[in-house]
Amino acid sequence: MPEIKLEHGNWRARVLPHGGLLGALDFGGIPVLRSMASGAHSALEAACFPMVPWCNRIADARFTWEGAMVALARNFLPEPHAIHGHGWQSDWAVEFQGSDTCELAHRHDGAGPGWPWAYEARQTIALSDAGCTITLSVTNLSGRLMPAGLGLHPYLRRRPGSRLRFIAAQVVDVGTDMIPTGDLLPADRFGPFAKGAGLPDELIDHCFTDWDGVAGVTDDLGTIGLRAQGATGLHLYAPDDPAILCLEPVNHCPDGANTGAMTLCAPGETMHLSLRIEASAA
Length: 282
Description:
The protein is mainly beta. The chain has one domain: Beta-galactosidase, Chain A, domain 5. The protein has 1 helix and 26 strands. It has one helix at residues 256-259, and strands at residues 4-8, 11-16, 21-27, 30-31, 48-51, 57-58, 62-65, 68-71, 82-83, 93-97, 101-108, 119-128, 131-140, 146-148, 151-154, 163-166, 170-174, 180-186, 197-198, 204-209, 214-219, 222-229, 233-238, 246-250, 263-265, 270-281. The strands form 7 sheets. A 9-stranded antiparallel β-sheet has the order 10-11-12-13-26-22-21-16-19, with no helix packed on it. The protein has a 5-stranded antiparallel β-sheet with strand order 18-17-20-23-24, with no helix packed on it. The mean pLDDT is 96.
């Protein structure tokens, strides 16, 4: 499918329907998110991708529901887990396209192996003077309760002097398999982010709980702001790659299907999550 180009004032964005991907987001000609290379198609090279109907990892790609085992595709080999849901690896239909707004839809019929619930996910990407707002929803089209998760996975601009600022209560500890251990760590385990701090020289791939929905990244090019609604957690992914920094608004912690952390969505019910990305120049 051809990419979609959106413009509004100083904002520019590219959208790729396969995966429901944001390919680039610029403000005044300066990248706010990393830009996807021309010809690239993988969500792991995108500027942002949606996570639906679950976020992050489900341990060993399986969980028990109503006494039966649900087996999922191991979609991030060689990892044994299922990760980030279906949306990021599926085609999305273009439901609406304007000069500064587009709406995409992804449908799953619940048949065959894998996620045994039918659902419809919708994603709206809109540019305005205030920034770029991404709204993601999922509607349970099955006849029974569905555990449901929503999240967005933006790759923010990362510079040598990038400093993060956000407020959360605690950090969910994980083992070497990146699955929660059941322990909680202090919110400042990786740095005093509530006051503003740089990134440490270690991998961070952790969910911060009871996030207030606001975050900022400051560097020599300016400031990037995030404002989320419907997200209870902020998953921070900062590997040793100096080009990757992800601040992911999510509505459940990793392995939520096995820990009971996912919200139950009734038949016909719709859940929403939104993220506004703001920017200012230095």
